């Protein structure tokens, strides 16, 4: 295993790939550096003297400004570097020339729906319109398990606390997310469970669902039923019979939509896991497929990389609005825009938001941005899309699912057991995590600094995703985990 990595020729720091002791002698491209302090794995040390106020360079870009004079060989972290970011900014479009390549078609075994959409699972989903019927929904899920048979893979309830006592855009966002899940092709059948008196009642939600197949989507209002659980089980039996008609068949990978998210990042996330997902994204897009990048607050400081890869000026302006809109959201709540990274990020070696964002955006690969989505929107354009959602793991992963992602790739340096409405692949940034939490981690990108090169590792990830799309269960699915979370932005009545 390598000891260190210098990511870009212009960097003034190196990253330790394993713990390095004080006094250790490190050779970097012919330069000898003597470490002045212990440097933990994933953390940085200076390759040269850096004066107070000068930028600290990593990924070939500034990750912040030195708080004090930093000597060559010194450990660099939150004690001696600070963010250099400002507030709401103006941007200029400097389009990059990106060569779009096409590669040989690939295939997976999925489900073709009657409306032309494609799914990678054939599940029955129970969607509550309001938190008041959450317990009813989970009770129905438990009692309906005998109907998991044939090609019906799971029956899953998705409780959430919203759907009432919301106003305006906040309430509409809840309705959009619920409607998006109702329409998601990973569900072969859907039971929409309402209470009856809620703001987002079934008749209101139908306006957001649009046209639907009455054999695939059933509705039940609990207040209008003498025994809502018994009635629901009858409806789910009908849904099970309908969903059982679908069989897996060969489908082009150009139909795949993959969400990309990171959480619990460490100093290796931007070096191993995130670039590996970026290389995967490029492979899928080269075969006509689609990827979605989200968590807008973790683009701050690296946003111009994405802006300059927009396919046209209209998309550039939409991306500017995406970034500044989220900053204004923070400001409107009197919150600090750059209250990031998290304690776990810092422990793993991430020092500033620029450091985190430059690593985070590695997941976008090198493709042109072809679409910009607001929260609750669904994908319309093939290729790389940007989606407005916060950095919160559950909220962002649910937003990716609602936008149409069949699968979410989730990179992590710390590990997490959570799931989302769709298969959620956990990708570790380091082999220690993969070894310690084998019940959480599906794919180890830490091998990038051990025994695999990027070309091979990204191909391995692509083949793994095709296997998951063809029915292979990820660790969270094996554990029976299914989560969802909606972005609450407004007041509660």
TrEMBL record:
One Pfam family hit: GD_AH_C
Annotated SAF domain residues: 11-82
InterPro entries attached to this UniProt entry: GD_AH_C, GD_AH_second, SAF, SAF_UxaA/GarD, UxaA_altronate/galactarate_dh
Keyword Nucleotide-binding: no
Coiled-coil residue windows: 222-249
Keyword entries, A-Z: Coiled coil, Hydrolase, Lyase
Gene Ontology BP annotations: D-galacturonate catabolic process
Superkingdom assignment: Bacteria
An annotated Gene Ontology molecular function: hydrolase activity
Keyword set includes Hydrolase: yes
Family note: Belongs to the UxaA family.
Name the UniProt record assigns to this protein: Altronate hydrolase
Species name: Lachnotalea glycerini
């Amino acid at each position: 295993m390598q000891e260190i990595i210098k990511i870009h020729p212009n960097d003034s720091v190196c990253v330790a790939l394993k713990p390095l002791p004080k006094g250790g002698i490190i050779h970097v491209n012919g330069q000898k550096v003597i470490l002045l302090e212990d440097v933990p794995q994933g953390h940085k040390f200076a390759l040269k003297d850096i004066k107070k106020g000068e930028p600290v360079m990593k990924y070939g870009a500034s990750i912040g400004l030195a708080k004090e004079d930093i000597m060559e060989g010194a450990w660099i972290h939150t004690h001696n570097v600070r963010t250099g970011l400002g507030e709401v900014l103006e941007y200029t479009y400097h389009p990059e020339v990106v060569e779009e390549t096409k590669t040989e078609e690939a295939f997976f075994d999925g489900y073709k729906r009657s409306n032309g959409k494609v799914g990678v699972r054939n599940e029955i989903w129970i969607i509550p319109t309001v938190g008041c019927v959450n317990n009813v929904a989970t009770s129905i899920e438990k009692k309906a398990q005998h109907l998991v048979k044939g090609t019906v893979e799971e029956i899953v309830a998705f409780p959430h606390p919203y759907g009432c006592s919301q106003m305006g855009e906040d309430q509409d966002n809840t309705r959009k997310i619920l409607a998006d899940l109702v329409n998601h092709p990973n569900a072969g059948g859907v039971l929409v469970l309402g209470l009856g008196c809620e703001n987002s009642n079934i008749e209101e939600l139908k306006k957001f669902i649009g046209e639907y197949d009455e054999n695939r989507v059933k509705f039940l209002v609990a207040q209008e039923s003498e025994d809502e659980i018994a009635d629901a089980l009858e409806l789910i039996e009908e849904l099970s019979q309908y969903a059982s008609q679908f069989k897996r068949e060969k489908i082009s990978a150009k139909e795949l939509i993959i969400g990309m998210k990171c959480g619990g990042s460490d100093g290796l996330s931007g070096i191993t896991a995130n670039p590996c997902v970026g290389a995967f994204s490029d492979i899928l897009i080269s075969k006509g497929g689609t990827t979605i990048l989200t968590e807008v607050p973790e683009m701050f400081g690296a946003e111009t990389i994405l802006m300059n890869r927009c396919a046209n000026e209209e998309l550039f302006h939409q991306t500017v609005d995406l970034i500044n809109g989220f900053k204004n959201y923070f400001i409107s709540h009197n919150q600090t825009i750059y209250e990031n990274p998290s304690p776990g990020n810092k422990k793993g070696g991430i020092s500033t938001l620029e450091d985190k964002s430059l690593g985070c955006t590695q997941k976008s690969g090198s493709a042109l941005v072809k679409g910009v989505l607001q929260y609750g929107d669904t994908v319309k354009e093939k290729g790389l899309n940007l989606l407005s959602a916060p950095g919160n793991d559950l909220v962002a992963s649910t937003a990716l699912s609602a936008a149409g992602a069949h699968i979410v790739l989730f990179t992590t340096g710390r590990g997490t057991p959570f799931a989302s409405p769709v298969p959620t692949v956990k990708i570790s940034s380091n082999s220690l995590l993969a070894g310690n939490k084998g019940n959480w981690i599906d794919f180890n990108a830490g091998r990038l600094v051990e025994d695999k090169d990027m070309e091979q590792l990204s191909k391995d990830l692509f083949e793994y995703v095709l296997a998951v799309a063809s029915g292979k269960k990820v660790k969270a699915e094996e554990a029976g985990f299914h989560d969802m979370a909606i972005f609450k932005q407004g007041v509660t009545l």
